[in-house]
């Protein structure tokens, strides 16, 4: 068994670059994680409720949740095929909640040795307004973190 590497995937090009980086690492077992964040609902999307329900709790439709879960599973299937081509052991997990918190929790509870995470450039307005998941993971992880730019 090689080094256990966790790669968070959100469907962005930078996350896929982080996965490709992890595939090139010698002697690794890769686990990919996608965190479905109920607070990421776009309130302008037709047919969905407001992202915040009563008392600040997320309000989302079952259809939204199912679509996000299926998108994550499809993304993981594609990454699994790439890992199989390289002969790299692969596992995947989908969680629900706040991304940085779920990534760190999973890493601590599953003996992850190394996190490889993609980041967006500074010109991404969401990084300025909401902070960066990669930055939070990098600052709080007790294991090595590689941020792929």
What does this entry look like structurally?
With 149 residues, the protein is an alpha/beta fold. 41% of the residues lie in helices and 21% in strands. It is built from five helices and five strands; from the N terminus they run E-H-E-H-E-H-E-H-H-E. A five-stranded parallel β-sheet has the order 3-2-1-4-5, with helices on both faces. The longest helix has 25 residues, at 62-86. The two termini are 28 Å apart.
What are the segments in which pLDDT stays under 50 over at least 5 consecutive residues? 46-57, 126-131
Pairing-aware structural class of the strands and helices? Answer: alpha/beta
Q: What fraction, in percent, of the residue positions are helical?
A: 40-55%
Number of strands: 5
Gap from first CA to last CA: 28 Å
Query: In percent, how much strand structure appears in the residues?
Result: 15-25%
Average pLDDT for all residues: 84
Q: Strand count, sense and closure of the main sheet? A: 5 strands, parallel
Number of helices: 5
What strand line-up does the widest sheet have?
Answer: 3-2-1-4-5
The global form is: globular
SSE pattern: EHEHEHEHHE
What is the C-alpha radius of gyration, as a whole number of Å? 16 Å
Explain briefly what this protein structure is.
The protein is α/β, with parallel strands linked by helices and 149 residues long.
Please supply descriptive tags for the structure shown above.
5 helices, 149 residues, 41% helix, globular
Element layout with pairings:
Elements: E1 3-8, H1 13-23, E2 28-36, H2 62-86, E3 90-96, H3 99-109, E4 114-118, H4 125-130, H5 133-140, E5 144-148
Helix pairs in contact: 3-5
